[in-house]
Design brief:
Layout (H helix, E strand, L loop, with lengths): L1 E6 L3 H4 L5 H8 L4 E6 L12 E3 L7 E3 L1 H14 L4 E11 L2 H7 L4 E6 L7 H6 L3 E4 L9 H12 L32 E2 L2 E2 L9 H19 L1 H6 L1
Parallel strand pairs: 1-2, 1-6, 5-6, 5-7
Antiparallel strand pairs: 3-4, 8-9
Length: 226
């Protein structure tokens, strides 16, 4: 899979995408992430990429020309399955969307900044608008890194234990059950006996029950949605 990210602040993406599981995915050749500095594509002097919005109002808007130039260049080089714009007024990104996108071959993520991007780019190029929550950040770089991480880790072969991603929270519409490790007795708090029993059938049943209980307590909306 290849993911191209278009950003005004590309340095914000360097650390999240070059360590841990994302680094491993790229080293294995299972994921290619290419970051494009929008300022490298602007036709304007002094690397200008933003301007005041028509009609007045606070905040700058990313101009259409630089984005059109880089998007046209990329789209002439290969076919993209989705062009994603990270914006607070998009559809909330979730595990279902991550699963769907992980099956694609080529993606573009456009990071918003300032007051966002010119609406004409959204109308002509963007195929999916997404947000990571009902709040506003300084730009779309951190949300883009989250999207890449969520997609990349479930690409087959990325994780050492390929089954581990299947038991993450939200994969089956439930939150993950509690997990424990050594020591068995920590300050008087003991690991549930069933996890020490070696009976995998009972362990699976216990984990499923705990997932349902935890979801009912913490995210009952997930049970309603399912």
């Amino acid at each position: 899979m290849r993911i191209d990210i278009i950003s005004v602040q590309p340095q914000l993406l360097e650390s999240p995408l070059n360590h841990s599981i994302m680094k491993r995915a790229q080293e294995k050749g299972l994921l290619e992430v290419v970051i494009h500095n929008l300022r490298d594509y602007t036709p304007y002097r002094q690397a200008q990429v933003d301007d005041y919005q028509f009609g007045g109002g606070a905040g700058m808007v990313i101009m259409p020309e630089p984005l059109a130039i880089v998007l046209d260049k990329l789209m002439n080089e290969r076919k993209y399955d989705e062009i994603i714009y990270m914006t607070p007024d998009g559809i909330t990104f979730n595990q279902k969307t991550a699963n769907k996108l992980s099956l694609k071959e080529n993606l573009i993520i456009v990071c918003g900044h300032y007051k966002g991007i010119d609406e004409r780019i959204r109308e002509q190029y963007i195929t999916l608008e997404s947000t990571i929550g009902d709040f506003v950040l300084s730009g779309g770089e951190l949300p883009a890194a989250i999207v890449v991480d969520a997609i990349g880790r479930i690409i087959p072969g990325v994780l050492n234990d390929e089954t581990s991603a299947l038991f993450d929270s939200f994969q089956d519409g439930l939150l993950a059950p509690p997990v424990y490790t050594r020591p068995e007795d920590f300050r008087g708090m003991k690991v549930p006996e069933v996890l020490l029993s070696g009976n995998h059938k009972k362990i699976d049943e216990w984990r499923h029950e705990m997932s349902i209980t935890r979801t009912q307590d913490r995210r009952p909306d997930l049970l309603k949605d399912s």
